[in-house]
What does this fold into?
Amino acid sequence: DAGVIQSPRHEVTEMGQEVTLRCKPISGHNSLFWYRQTMMRGLELLIYFNNNVPIDDSGMPEDRFSAKMPNASFSTLKIQPSEPRDSAVYFCASSLAKGGTEAFFGQGTRLTVV
Amino acid sequence: AQSVTQLGSHVSVSEGALVLLRCNYSSSVPPYLFWYVQYPNQGLQLLLKYTTGATLVKGINGFEAEFKKSETSFHLTKPSAHMSDAAEYFCAVSGRGDYKLSFGAGTTVTVRA
It folds into this structure.
């Protein structure tokens, strides 16, 4: 398996623009996570899906952020409108929804909002 | 809710010296515990995990960790540091019946020649 695939790897956008980050989880995994990593706040869980259903979105910063998982092999994280403080590395991870199983991470998308 | 605290945001060791990274967890019942490593500009990679059974867990690259319930700890060690061990290390926890991982703040390891 190719692992968790994220695209793009790097994104530079202007403040106010819409940004869409994409994730393809490992085939067969039924849990998917979006994390954000910054120097100030470390790794933050934004949202967690199980069987394509959002289970916990308490980490989503505000209404500008939205995430979808239309099927088991694809998820998006959208920021509209983007702001400079959204600049971070965004990671997608997937796992089997089974106790004690680890999450497998993608390479991340480095987002810079100018 | 489960959480972990990593003691020390930065650790510097000499090549060949012991690496010790500290992690304490907070949970009402023994949780699942993980150590991940992150190399520059890469995602996180699992080093090892504790679920049940043997409390001394061996992982990749010569790392091991011991689950100590009495101390609510899951410290990571490696007997002899190598230059390639320079990275950021994260302790993580998930509860039984809960699949999301909560991460510590991370510890950056530098290895001196």
In short: Chain A has a mean pLDDT of 94. The first strand of chain A starts at residue 5 and ends at 7.
